[in-house]
Design goal:
The chain is built from 15 helices and 19 strands. The chain folds into four domains: about 160 residues, Methylthiotransferase, N-terminal domain (Rossmann fold, 3-Layer(aba) Sandwich); about 110 residues, Transcription Regulator spoIIAA (2-Layer Sandwich), CATH 3.30.750; about 120 residues, Transcription Regulator spoIIAA (2-Layer Sandwich), CATH 3.30.750; about 55 residues, Beta Barrel (OB fold (Dihydrolipoamide Acetyltransferase, E2P)), CATH 2.40.50.140. By secondary structure, it is an alpha/beta fold. It has a six-stranded parallel sheet with strand order 2-1-3-4-5-6, with helices on both faces. Bound molecules: S-adenosyl-L-homocysteine (SAH), iron/sulfur cluster and FE3-S4 cluster.
Length: about 475
């Protein structure tokens, strides 16, 4: 690897130089062929990856690529991968497998892989061995090096593997191409220090690093000025925001300051960790003008024995204290959670504790996951892995219980008028319009899709576990 690309991982300016070089080459191509080169970016995984992909597309656009909606006919394909469960890895690998025939049709097609899955050494090696048509690979720490790596590939035609490496300083100012004109992600921190025993994220995203508050606030101000209505602050554990920053602010300070920005917008954040979600944060939310009364607070398990083995550093009782305070301060708050079923050693009694917590907590919705052993994590080496048939039976019972609770919670909204951000025409039914409430619940109504990107008032007329139906109020 050349010196230029080594530096490009660390500093925005070198990224800019590489962008300019590729741009020249792409402009020459356009002149000769009469068409612009096209780039296709495919994303697996969480919002953090979606936010990274918007930067990849932003860099590609700055390099002169047109952003394509499908891989067919693309000149550059970037696959941004996830490693959180085995299923996510399998999907990414099988998708890349299908690109082999595109490469056969167009030998000049450049295929790159990035993100969490390829940040693991064993996966990078697998790509090297079994996917010879993948031209270069860059891990999460090398996001800003993408243009330099592409330039290097174009010049040397030697495959490049920049998989697992130490995290770099946060590259500020990378170009962004946002998918939406009214909903936006803002990453406020990268990495994770928690090492929950089941989780691969700390290994593939490195140690926690927070952005300074000023560039974050500047980004939010810019978004609001550009008409963005729904802004989500992202980090693996936003509650520990601020460590190591010069400003020394905590997450509540950041939110309080962001709330002072004038405009018609909602601020959200994810994800919170129950051990760090404190009263100060909840007080700031309750007193705010813009912060959505919505909280995603992953519980993972209701059993204290399992929580300890998961290295979560809280108990079910401590969790409930936070939850109760949240509801006391904001009775209208929407609360969602994550649950893992079948963690190693989970007994029938442990699972019953989870069921009891689900009854008690009355979440609006949960994301439930079947435990997936991740290579290199402590839990993967634990004894007493739960047999799949036991896990699946528990998973089904959990869903059944939560669906009933979710439907009941949603029915409480019938008759209420809610502020909803319109997403335009619904995918399945052209006569129907959909949108999201402040609590991020999906709502359908008959109406004009032209309200897309604006807040409207919808009176809720009926409800199910996963969606609400309503009538548009014209006022
Ligand atoms: N940092 C966030 C999100 C992490 S990944 C948090 O701490 O909540 C999102 C969810 O995936 C986790 O909350 C957890 O429920 C689930 N998850 C993570 N690793 C998993 C694994 N190995 N098997 C199954 N689910 C997992
Ligand atoms: Fe994974 Fe835990 Fe970090 Fe979330 S807090 S990313 S679950 S290690
Ligand atoms: Fe997946 Fe990486 Fe997110 S592992 S869940 S894309 S942080």
């Amino acid at each position: 690897m050349g010196k230029a690309s080594a530096r490009a991982a660390n500093a925005g300016i070198q990224t800019e130089q590489a962008i300019a070089l590729v741009r020249q080459e792409n402009d020459r191509f356009s002149m000769e062929s009469g068409r612009a080169r096209r780039a296709f970016v495919l994303t697996f995984g969480c919002q953090q990856n979606e936010a990274d992909s918007e930067k990849i597309a932003g860099m590609a656009k700055a390099m002169g690529y047109e952003i394509a909606a499908t891989p067919e006919g693309a000149d550059l394909i970037v696959v941004n991968t996830c490693a959180v469960r085995e299923h996510a890895e399998k999907k990414a690998l099988s998708t890349v497998g299908q690109y082999k025939h595109l490469k056969a049709q167009n030998p000049d097609l450049v295929i790159a892989m990035c993100g969490c899955m390829v940040s693991q050494q064993h996966r990078a090696e697998e790509i090297k061995r079994r996917y010879p048509y993948v031209n270069f690979v860059f891990g999460t720490a090398a996001l800003g090096a993408f243009p330099a790596l592409l330039w290097e590939w174009m010049n040397t035609r030697r495959r490049i593997f920049r998989a697992a490496e130490a995290e770099t300083a946060i590259a500020e100012g990378l170009p962004v191409r946002r998918e939406s004109g009214y909903r936006a992600w803002v990453s406020i921190m990268y990495g994770c220090n928690n090492f929950c025993s089941y989780c691969i994220v700390p290994y593939v995203r490195g140690r926690e690093r927070s952005r300074e508050p000023e560039p974050i606030l500047a980004e939010i101000r810019e978004l609001v000025a550009a008409g963005y209505r729904d802004i989500t602050l992202l980090g693996q554990n936003v509650n520990s925001y601020g460590k190591g920053t010069k400003a020394g602010w905590d997450f509540a300070d950041l939110l309080a300051e962001a709330d002072k920005i004038e405009g018609d917008f909602l601020l959200r954040f994810m994800t919170s960790h129950p051990k760090d979600a404190g009263k100060k944060l909840i007080d700031v939310m309750a007193a705010s003008r813009h912060i959505a009364h919505q909280f995603h607070l992953p519980l993972q398990s209701g059993s204290n024995a399992i929580l300890a083995k998961m290295n979560r550093h809280y108990t079910a009782e401590k969790y409930l204290e936070t939850l109760d305070y949240l509801r006391e301060k904001m009775p209208d708050v929407t609360v969602t959670s994550d649950i893992i079923v079948g963690f190693p050693g989970e007994t029938e009694e442990d699972f019953e504790e989870t069921m009891k917590m689900i009854e008690r907590a009355q979440f609006d919705m949960i994301f439930s996951f079947i435990y997936s052993p991740r290579k290199g994590t402590p839990a993967a080496a634990m004894e007493d892995q739960v047999p799949p048939e036991v896990t699946h039976a528990r998973f089904d019972r959990l869903l059944e219980l939560q669906n009933a609770i979710g439907a009941e919670k949603n029915r409480e909204l019938v008759g209420k008028t809610l502020r909803v951000l319109c997403d335009g025409e619904s995918k399945n039914d052209k006569a129907t319009v959909s949108g999201r409430t402040e609590g991020n619940k999906l709502v359908f109504w008959r109406g004009d899709p032209a309200a897309r990107g604006n807040f409207v008032r919808v009176k809720i007329t009926s409800a199910e576990a996963f969606a609400l139906q309503g009538e548009l109020l014209n006022d």
